[in-house]
Amino acid sequence: MEQVILRYDGEALVEHSMNLKLVADSLQGIEALVREVHEEMGGKEEELNLQIKGGFQKGSFEFLFTLGQQLPDGIELLKIIGFGSPIAAGSLMAYLEWLKGKKIQKITMTEEGDCKIVTEDGEDKVAPSYMRPLLASTSVRGAFSKIISKPLRDSGIEVFEALSTEEKKADRTQYVSVTTANEKNYRAKNTTVIDLIDNKPMDEKVITFLTVHKDKDTSWRVEDVDGITYTVKMEDEDFLANFRKGNEPDIFVNAYAVEIVEKENTINLDKTYSIVKVYAPE
């Protein structure tokens, strides 16, 4: 069981009132964020138990957030998010603070199995591999916007904090403090990663065609000399035009040398293949 206090502070809360929509959006954001991180870390929905109690203290509004979950290897979800440890400890919030609202140019995998984040202005940082989908997720950014950015843009709310749960305020540890000066680090984005696809030219291959289409350039199937089959997109426009004119009558008989490019989605690691050049039949 993990617990944390999420707290808003500012002049607007002196009178013990907070915009109802901000409260509702914040709660929705917390639930959405926790559920997505939990799922990305391999958790099952039925293993997640979220409970929230809210109330006003003088000049502030706070939630007591209790999380019950079963993740492998003793993974603590709140620490991964940043609500359960200091922000400098490599949490999701720590990486968002490092990004400072900038877009990610690309995310690649290192030989050690971590991910390398490169910003649009060329800065880079290595993070654990599980941060790859979380930092790329627009819904994660949207959830943080509801929890942090939008409330801090509302007049009179000046600070968002994550605190330990000791009864006496003086005994509480401050894990996170975000002010109006850096709320922009948590704003929603329609695009988080600019270059989602990593193009990797493969060695030239000799292939035979198994499936071809005159009406489309996708879902072609080929087999190489090692018996490996690929579903490919045909991007050699000259060859495609020649084929459509009926000038490749022996396309299923001939062996062709081709250049194939592997296109890997750097977030979900899905791979697709494109033939970019077809040479004369062998």
Topology record:
Layout (H helix, E strand, L loop, with lengths): L1 E8 L10 H21 L8 E9 L2 E9 L8 H5 L10 H8 L4 E6 L5 E5 L4 E4 L3 H6 L1 H16 L5 E5 L10 E6 L17 E5 L3 E7 L8 E5 L4 E6 L2 H8 L11 E10 L5 E11 L1
Parallel strand pairs: 12-14
Antiparallel strand pairs: 1-3, 1-7, 2-3, 4-5, 5-6, 7-8, 9-13, 10-11, 10-13, 11-12, 13-14
Helix pairs in contact: 1-5
Word description of this protein:
There is one protein chain. The protein has 282 residues and is an alpha+beta fold. The protein folds into two domains: 194 residues, no CATH class; 84 residues, Nucleic acid-binding proteins (OB fold (Dihydrolipoamide Acetyltransferase, E2P), Beta Barrel), CATH 2.40.50.140. Helix content is 23%, strand content 34%. Helix 1 packs antiparallel against helix 5. The protein starts with a strand and ends with a strand. The mean pLDDT is 91.
Segments where pLDDT lies below 50 for 5+ residues?
A: none
Going across the biggest sheet, name each strand in turn: 2-3-1-7-8
Strand content: 25-35%
H-E string: EHEEHHEEEHHEEEEEEHEE
Helix content: 10-25%
Number of helices: 6
The helix/strand class is alpha+beta
* Rg, Cα atoms, Å: 26 Å
